[in-house]
Design a protein that fits this description.
Elements: E1 3-4, H1 10-19, H2 25-36, H3 50-59, E2 60-61, E3 66-72, E4 78-83, E5 89-96, E6 101-104, E7 108-110, H4 119-122, E8 125-128, H5 131-145, E9 151-154, H6 164-175, E10 187-191, H7 195-203, E11 209-213, H8 219-225, H9 228-231, H10 234-248, E12 253-258, H11 266-275, E13 282-287, H12 302-314, E14 319-321
Parallel strand pairs: 1-2, 6-9, 9-10, 10-11, 11-12, 12-13, 13-14
Antiparallel strand pairs: 3-4, 4-5, 5-6, 7-8
Helix pairs in contact: 1-2, 5-6, 7-10, 11-12
Length: about 350
């Protein structure tokens, strides 16, 4: 039987090595080669016997994404277009913040949610990514950059809480001290509002961070621009946020992209404050990033952005106007998947 290395947890490796009459600590050695040293050739794992290396080579494949294209933004942001084993193509992004780097990882090929301001959803949905395909993006980005990446955010293509099992499984391996050993506070899931998934995240054994793409503070507007709201309206969604906050004690980040004439009135800032009362959220104000499929949507003018932020400030709600990164290479929020259509 042939296995895929990145689909195996540490426990899976230990079970397999026991079946092979190998000592369990060999499983930890293999995982440290893959996850800590980013060594993907069995024959280079020099503290393993030649017999074991040959057996690994014969029975376990290393399915890594293939880099089709890399683009570098003026601000240092890198965007990667990957091809997976079945020919599906996905994108992920590496953000350089000077002292640290953040990987923005995809969890699905495409997205089924169809938010009106997002290019990923405009391109449709292909399938969920496996845990190995999720991990492969991150490990290959570290390999290509020759250095560890400090943070990972599930904010790339797709809705991570619609691929919960594979995302949670990948996070367990990223966090495992014998694998990648990435701290829980360095991992964030961003969701468009899958309420049952948020409740599952509240019970998840690893206290990772949560970010919600809100973008509208009432059901009428949110259902119009984010169809997922019809299934999980704001009352149900906010109840799940409160449960997450109560169970974990973690602060929730709220993402809000300002779109000219759509959701940028200061009145919406007051509605958002009422909606999230008691959650003590951190509001991330995002300049809308233009997308080819909706040329009629435009970024809010600077004056209206200031009015919106002033309304939040008057309510003593902590917020920040996010600095745009990667827009010149279609690597900013909502822009991923555009280049998959044109790549050769």
């Amino acid at each position: 039987m042939t296995y895929d290395a990145l689909e195996l947890s540490l426990n899976d490796w230990q079970i397999l090595f026991t079946e092979w009459n190998e000592q369990k600590f060999r499983a930890t050695q293999v995982c440290q080669w893959i996850y800590a040293k980013k060594e993907f050739s069995w024959h280079s794992m020099t503290n393993l016997s030649k017999t074991l290396r040959d057996k690994l080579n014969e029975n376990i494949m290393m399915s890594l994404p293939i880099v089709i294209r890399q683009q570098v933004s003026r601000d240092g942001t890198r965007k990667y277009l990957w091809q997976l084993n079945d020919g599906s193509r996905i994108e992920s992004v590496l953000l350089n913040h000077g002292g640290h780097k953040t990987a923005c990882i995809s969890s699905q090929a495409g997205c089924p949610l169809g938010c009106t301001f997002c290019e990923t959803g405009a391109n449709g949905f292909t399938r969920n990514l496996t845990r190995g395909e999720i991990l492969g993006q991150f490990l290959m980005m570290e390999k290509l950059n020759g250095a560890d990446i400090n943070n990972i955010v599930f904010m790339g293509m797709g809705e991570p809480l619609l691929n919960e099992d594979n995302v949670f499984s990948a996070i367990r391996s990223l966090n495992d001290k014998n694998m990648r050993n990435l701290g829980a506070r360095h991992i964030t899931i961003s969701t468009s509002g899958i309420a049952p998934g948020i409740e599952d995240l509240a019970d998840f054994e690893i206290p990772i961070r949560l970010s919600l793409s809100l973008h509208a503070p009432n059901d009428e507007l949110r259902s119009r621009i984010m169809p997922v709201n019809r299934q999980y309206p704001l009352q149900k969604l906010v109840a799940s946020l409160r449960r997450y906050h109560e169970r974990t004690g973690e602060r929730i980040t709220i993402e809000y992209a300002l779109i000219d004439g759509v959701n940028d009135s200061p009145e919406y800032a007051y509605e958002m404050a009422a909606l999230l009362d008691g959650l003590e959220p951190y509001i991330n104000i995002i300049p809308f990033n233009p997308i080819p499929s909706k040329p009629e949507l435009r970024r809010s003018p600077s004056g209206r952005v200031k009015e919106f932020c002033s309304a939040l400030a008057s309510l003593k709600i902590e917020h920040e106007l996010r600095k745009e990164r990667g827009g010149d290479i279609m690597a900013a929020c909502g822009q991923l998947a555009g280049s998959t259509r044109n790549a050769s």
